[in-house]
Amino acid sequence: MARTICDYVTSWNPSDDGEQIMSANDKQKVWEFNLPSGTDDSKSTVITFMVQGDDADDLTFQFDIGGHTKSYTIDSDVMRAFQEVVNPGALNTSDLTKNAVTFKWKSGDGKLRISNVVIWFQRSDQG
Q: Which of 56, 92, 100, 124 could anchor a disulfide with 32, C-beta 3.0 to 4.6 Å?
């Protein structure tokens, strides 16, 4: 009997500090990730990530995962966590190796440090 469990994938390259820096000259960062078999795209997905501004002034950025886009504006250098529930259908389960989260610079001043990206999803387990 198959059961549904919560699973996750984590961000970037664990051999480095896990941080990606974006500025007005570096308009986007893309993190590609693989999903395990049994991933259920009919359920909502959750994305969490840490952000810290560096001389941030009306710094607006957005993330996109599978067509689900959300924008944020920050005005301080305080590190904070963001979490967003993503509608079903955002993950590519027809090719488990073709999934990505894109962070895009939109406007404002300063630098943006992105780290600790985690994608939470449900999958079936044959256990």
A: 100
